[in-house]
Write a structure and sequence with these properties.
347 residues; 434 Repressor (Amino-terminal Domain)
Amino acid sequence: MNLGEVIRTYRKEKQMTQEEMAGYLGVTAPAVNKWEKGNSFPDISLLAPIARLLGISTDTLLSYEEELTDREINQITEKCCAMMKSEDYDAAFSWASSRLQEYPSCEKLILTLANILDGYRTILAIDEPQRYDEKIRSLFIRLLSSKDDSIVQAAALSLFYDSLGKEEYENAQEYLNRIPEQGFNPRRGQALLMQRKGDTEEAYRLYEQLIFQAYSEIGTSLAGIFSMAIAEEDMDKAEYILEKKKLAQVLEMGRYMETSYELELAMCRKDREKTIEVLSKMVHSIREMDEYKKSRLYEHMQFHDGGIDHIAFVLKKGLQEAEEMGFVREDARYRKILEELDGMVGE
């Protein structure tokens, strides 16, 4: 919460009117109203009296010790993503920077916004994206000193991929070394412990998370092998890897994940009919992308609610920017697919 929201929240908890608060502090009621709306700020000499009046510390008043909830972080990130789509990258970047100044110690927010800012400059194909390199990299570098190993690993991984893309291989190796090799996943041990202690709900949740995480790692590895086979024009190998999509079926990850590999192969072969067919499947399965949330396999896990608009937006931008799609751009069916995606954005 910002200063005005803190004042309003604790004033109401005290069942105090703006007029009463103003009287205690020797200011006018309109002044208090402006503070709460964020149109102005109290004089610095009033901060301690305001905190005492509200029964809170000055740290709480100024949100120095505030830890954002996951819900609050989601609200901030969702608004940032919405601004990327409805306004422009510069405006969204400026807004996100202000939020990070407001909550400079919230590492989860820093990590989430840094990933959004990094990802959207590619998705939106903005001019001179390197202008933001230093600022975005500095956010990830800040997180390397976190006491939370998962945050350090996520930040180091982002810096690794960034250095890899710039062919800064020594830096890439340095960041890769910050990611510890895990021979044993402690979550597996925790799941077994919960199972033995009789905490079945928690044991189920942990085992389900292990399955979900394992699919992500295996899927990423298969995608890497598939891409190399395509680059080497080894279509037999690519077809062989494509058959492994059955893993997505077995683990109930949804039809979108099952068909995504097929698009790259069809595009590589410049197979117009197959490309249109796969694109149509992908678009029609976007609304079912979160079907795994309803699966009995993951029934003890909690997932954030997310709209389909982000996936539709990213897919549409990717299709519009991909030079490889030139051979289908004039096809009426392709243009209809883009229209369908456009209609999903904002749902």
